[in-house]
Amino acid sequence: MTADFAKSAQRGRDRSILTSPRIKRLQLLHFLVFDVAPIAGVIVAVVGWPRTEPSAVDLALFFALWAVTGLGLTVGYHRRFSHRAFDCGPGVDAALIVMASMAARGPMFSWAAMHRRHHERSDREGDLHSPNLFGASRLARLRGFAHAHFTWMARHPYPNAGYYIPDLLQQPGLLRWNRRYYVCVAAGLALPALIGGLVTQSWSGAASAFLWGGVIRLFVVEHTMNAINSLAHLIGDRPFARGADASRNLAWASIATWGEAWHNNHHAFPWSAAFGFGARQPDPGLWFIRALVRLGLAWDVKSPDAARIAERAEAEGAKEA
Amino acid sequence: MAKASAEEIAVWARAEAAKILQRPPERIDLDAKLSRLGLDSATAVHLMVMIEDWLGVELDPELAFEHPTLRRLAEAIAERLG
């Protein structure tokens, strides 16, 4: 053993995260293709209007794939894999990974590892997408917003999967679908083009369906979900005050984010399959899980009862005051 | 455990990769690209950290990308161990 190795082994570096130039290059490429390029699709739609106006078929594909990928992200990547908030069989696991992968938000293992780190560090040093670590001035807050909403993805340290998701790595079924990430992304773009082309029997129909059901749908899913990292850590209610953890509830965004916007609730009870608490907090992700339960496809759905929620709100409110 | 031959490292890494991939070690080709075997960034990094823990040394995770087969990776690590 060389002296260098001996020293570093004693020093004991942070085992939870690492930086790799090669992984950063992959991140940058992914960012350019799936986060920057879709903006061009939106520009094309605006500049080409009204020729680019969506047909009924385009709109149907847009909303259907928004639902498929949005629910895949919140129910699959987030509630099922990152937090184990409910249980289901391998078929549903596979379906959830495929659905979410089509949103091009990264492979499930990477997503879950980064998300568990987000809960470990919430708005403290090491949180990969906090808007609150740049300072208090208006400019600093704007920079924080841009980072949390968009630019953090261009290059960032990479969490050690062995540290954050050992439970997921042990399930061969998950690995099998996790590694098909790019096939799923491609399918999410090819599918609307194919259906649009077949239904209208034209190339222009295929192109238009690709634009709305593929590219613009990617853009909308990305920015609604990214608002959870940015806006839902900057503005909104905090029924559960949590110190440095700046997570907030954005009631107005709850439907468009499939329930994700009850983000302060989620940080208070990360193990809960319910993000919205009670009938007055709509949570389409929870409705989807309940539908799976009714079909016998999901079980052991975890959520806090009303007494526990009230008790926690009171305790954390008192701490803040 | 800091002294290990390239052969030893390759055999150990193959056993670990076999655990990650849930496949018998003998069905893992030492000369296949890690990505071909089914290891992506997350699982390749996990494998590197497992090797580090086993050897009790710190390794640059870049090695798994610069030497993307188990045999070449093991040779590169053995060389660094000196």
Descriptive account of the structure:
- The complex is a heterodimer of chains A (321) and B (82).
- Chain A has 321 residues and is mainly α.
- Chain A has a domain at 20-232.
- Chain A is built from 14 helices and 4 strands.
- In chain A, the strands form 2 sheets. Chain A has a two-stranded antiparallel ribbon.
- The longest helix of chain A has 27 residues, at 21-47.
- By secondary structure, chain B is an all-alpha fold.
- Chain B has helices spanning 6-21, 34-37, 41-55, 63-66, 70-81.
- The radius of gyration of chain B is 11 Å and the shape is globular.
- Chain B starts with 5 loop residues before the first helix and ends with a helix.
- Chain A binds chain B through residues 1-2, 5, 8-9, 13, 15, 18, 20-23, 26, 107, 109-110, 113, 158, 160-163, 165, 169, 172, 175-176, 178-179, 181, and chain B through 2-3, 20-22, 38, 40-43, 45-46, 49-50, 56-58, 61-62, 65-66, 80-82.
How would you briefly describe this protein structure?
The complex is a heterodimer of chains A (321) and B (82). Chain A has 321 residues and is mainly alpha-helical.
Name given to the CATH homologous superfamily of chain B: ACP-like
Strand element count of chain A: 4
Which structural class do the helices and strands of chain B define?
mainly alpha
β-sheet strand percentage of chain B: under 5%
How are helices and strands ordered from N to C of chain A? HEHHEHHHEHHHHHHHEH
First and last CA, distance of chain A:
55 Å
Structural class of chain A: mainly alpha
Mean of residue pLDDT values of chain B: 89
Write the CATH architecture name of chain B: Orthogonal Bundle
Mean pLDDT of chain A: 93
- State the name of the first-level CATH class of chain B: Mainly Alpha
Helix content of chain A: 55-70%
CA-based gyration radius of chain B: 11 Å
Mind summarizing the main beta sheet of chain A?
2 strands, antiparallel
Strand content of chain A: under 5%
Strand order of the largest sheet of chain A: 1-3
Outline of chain B? globular
Distance between the termini of chain B: 13 Å
The amount of helix of chain B comes to 55-70%
**Overall geometry of chain A:** globular
